[in-house]
Amino acid sequence: MAAQPTPDTRPQRQAAISNLLHLQQTGKLTTDDKRLVARAFGRSTKTIDRWIENALSHDGTYTPQPRDCLRLTPQIHDALARWCGNTAAAYRELADEGHLDIPGKPGRRYSYATLHRTITRELDPGHLAGLKGGETARRRYDVHNTRERGNRNDAWEGDHKTADVHVGLNNEVICPHITWFAEAATDAICGVAITPHSPSREAILVALRSAILRGRHHGPFGGAPTLIRIDRGKDFLCETVEEALAAFCIRRVDLPPRHPELKGTIEAINDAVKDTLFAGLPGYTERPTTKPGRSKRPPIEDLLTFEQFVGLLLKWVRWWNYEHKIRNLGNKTPAQAWEDDLTIIRDIPPEALHTFTLEPARKTFIIQGNGVHWDNKIYLDAWMNGCVGKKVAVRFMPHHDQRIELTDPKTSTYLGPGFKQGVPDPDAEQRRHELFRTRKRSAAALRRRLEKTEASLRKRYSAVTDTTPPVLLSPTIANLSTPHPKPPPQDALRDLPQPTTSWETAPDGIPRPQLPTQPAANLPAPTSSWDTTPTTDKDADGHARP
Prior knowledge:
Blueprint: H1 10-25, H2 31-41, H3 45-56, H4 74-82, H5 87-97, H6 112-122, H7 125-133, H8 135-139, E1 156-162, E2 167-169, E3 172-174, E4 177-183, E5 189-195, H9 201-212, E6 227-230, H10 239-247, E7 251-254, H11 264-276, E8 304-305, H12 306-322, H13 334-340, E9 359-366, E10 372-374, E11 377-380, E12 391-397, E13 400-407, E14 414-420, H14 428-457, H15 475-478, H16 490-494, E15 537-538, E16 544-545
Parallel strand pairs: 1-6, 2-8, 6-7
Antiparallel strand pairs: 1-4, 2-3, 4-5, 9-12, 10-11, 11-14, 12-13, 13-14, 15-16
Helix pairs in contact: 1-3, 2-3, 4-5
């Protein structure tokens, strides 16, 4: 059985000697006090006296002197770095140059064991690993703080991952690239985008749009996060991504380069997908072999197609979110942790997300009687009613064909969405009723306009009291629905019968009123046109004078 190492008692010795010095300064130090301390440390009273003398020579602090042994000098450190941490090679070089000679003992030098013990005593394992394997090897010995999880959507993390799998695409062998975003509080994968080539800002925005949207095939995860942690990749730092995040008040946190521990959630997902999915697929690039060198790539006929790989990856994402239990979450799945968190989610309407870059179709399309035909599917929405024959440009999200976005091909103005027809959808019945109501509203609006126009154009004539031909009135006068009709032109009123000023010219058969010959007392004589005798003057009493 190996002997147990002797514990370091220097702090206890310093405290004991400090107390003895205090007793000595106050004149209360006795031999019994020295014996008590000597018995505690297994030493003699003479040793305690030497310790007191050491403290007096070092300003009252006991400072044990190290033994004469080999120390790590700059020459030893340089030789060890030149030989990449090889202690044996550094020892041979230092011995030949005389750096290991024992002072005061000519012809004698320190042994290899002494050098090895000195190096391991004064250099930590991380530094030694760095001398052998560089910065990557040194980081394996680093320790890190544990970040508080917080609430859902407090922080997201985004990253690119090159799939360690060869797949076939158009008779070519490629390694797909994955862009995804994970929620830091629940470890849920909110959005993912797969590209057969190196990812760009378009893949980032497509994955971000997929992550923010919620409901139906997007799942419950999503909403607008408070911040997103990303590395300093040039595609993540582009202005397009920054403007898209700023449009929805999402702060981007740019982490320093080569520090994956600062976004540990997404890095853990990168390692998990490699160990639990890629390692079991044909064409795994890091599969161990019996022969040295890189593993032999199987023929393209034995590889997965790009579409098959995408299907398996999306299935793995669903497994991770809904079935995989994580120990740090209390053995809950990300979906359970998400549902248990009652933090309010800030959703962004899909109509507002069209500002994110979607993948454009290669040509324009025409709205037909049953919608827009794209990718052997039919897409329809209520806003297309009345737009049959109009050209539109299609923008879509890869791997999500339930909805497309339509814009004007000339001005790039957003027109509206299009929903896939002929598939089970809980909102399909509601959209069907909305389309029916839209058609009825369009027909009613047109009917009202035509009736109003027909009424305004209908011919109307003026009423007559004799054999004079009627006069055609202006259509504006006849339109009674006009709130403020304009007065008729003078030409239309010129030929109308004018009111008579005397019954002398009234037609026969119309009775004439009989006026009194003498005016009543205190009453003025009538002066209206009912008087058959025109008046030309008045007397002093105001009576009419013939």
